[in-house]
Amino acid sequence: xxxxxxxxxxxxxxxxNVRAQTPGPVNYDEQKVPQYRLPDVLTCAxxxxxxxxxxxxxxxxxxxxxxxxxxxxxITPRGRVRMDxxxxxxxxxxxxxxxxxxxxxxxxxxxxxxxxxxxxAYYPNRREGRVPVFIxxxxxxxxxxxxxxxxxxxxxxxxxxxxxDPELRRNNQSSRWPLAMILRRGxxxxxxxxxxxxxxxxxGDKESVTQLFPPSADNDSRWQALGAxxxxxxxxxxxxxxxxWANRRQLIVMGHSRQGKAALWAGAQDKRFQxxxxxxxxxxxxxxxxxxxxxxxxxxxxxxxHWFCPAFTRYAGNEGSLPFDQHFLLALVAxxxxxxxxxxxxxWADPKGEYLSAYHASRVxxxxxxxxxxxxxxxxxxxxxxxxxxxxxxxxGHDVTGYDWNCYMDFCDNAFGRE
Length: 419
Ligand code: GCU
Description:
Elements: H1 2-17, H2 53-73, E1 82-94, E2 99-110, E3 113-124, E4 131-138, H3 155-158, H4 179-184, E5 188-193, H5 194-197, H6 225-240, E6 246-256, H7 258-269, E7 273-279, H8 297-303, H9 326-331, E8 337-343, H10 351-367, E9 385-386, E10 389-394, H11 402-415
Parallel strand pairs: 4-5, 4-6, 6-7, 7-8, 8-10
Antiparallel strand pairs: 1-2, 2-3, 3-5, 9-10
Helix pairs in contact: 6-7
């Protein structure tokens, strides 16, 4: 009886240790970053050190993937849903003749329901052989990328009562999508609006692709928006690999901010993505949570209860008890190519935490004899470092700019051996 009581008390103590707590104000002072200890990505759950690729691939990688699925992003269901693709429009002279554009309605069906997402592709007309493809979501609908009236509203925006809101106007995201510049360098772009896959609001799941699958067996590890967006990246890849102009060995997944978090999770799970790019992904993306700098687990899970799986909220105000950190996520990209980008004024996303996480993930790249980030010190502003792992911090704020795109294309040219 006594032992039982003791075990019970111990269990209660352990549980209270991982219960959400309200932390103090957001910290932007490097001096106030707490002392933290990062869990070792190269030590198995039972304490066995990982010293070979074989051990990493056959044992530890699976453990890390499972940990992140169960505790952070939710478990992606294994089942498949039906995906029908219908070309709605094709323009062989898009962007002044530089590219061909295609608009394809994807209809996903499962559990007697269906969800539609409108994919938009541009591929270069001048090309020799198959081309590398950037796969990325947009925030405000396909029509927000361009002033081209041919480009249709994404289904999510079609449903909105007030499409005249200035925020939702055509072309208003074009600075983030320098299409002509990308196409001129020989890359294709494939995008769709992330809201089509999972509307970005707390009750968004009702209209999302999660409804096409049987309900999750374990509520704590239930997938939500980030899991669904990651799943959607892979569906774009499913379409891309069937296109005669696309090089299926040169798929790049790229995402900004919340979409960068999802891009990393997609890249971790789907090895078809040869290059994985996080643009200003911050908390729950590239940045280390245990630094508690800028946005923390508390803020993110409170403002966006629909992004992570319910289990993740336990670490709010309790980052010290996290059995992993975001370098685990980045390490899952090895031995493929990884690029993390920060912006100087984007302190909410903790640029230093983003860099350090890529630095600590580099140990897994070393297992393959590949060079990652060699120094724990960040490079100066606007001076990218690039090996198998790339990083830059540019001047300016939270955004995607032409500078970022040029760095990504330089990195990919190098990764794919292009001139
Ligand atoms: C908010 C959120 C971030 C997210 C960002 C974005 O700022 O707190 O976590 O990255 O939105 O997606 O733009």
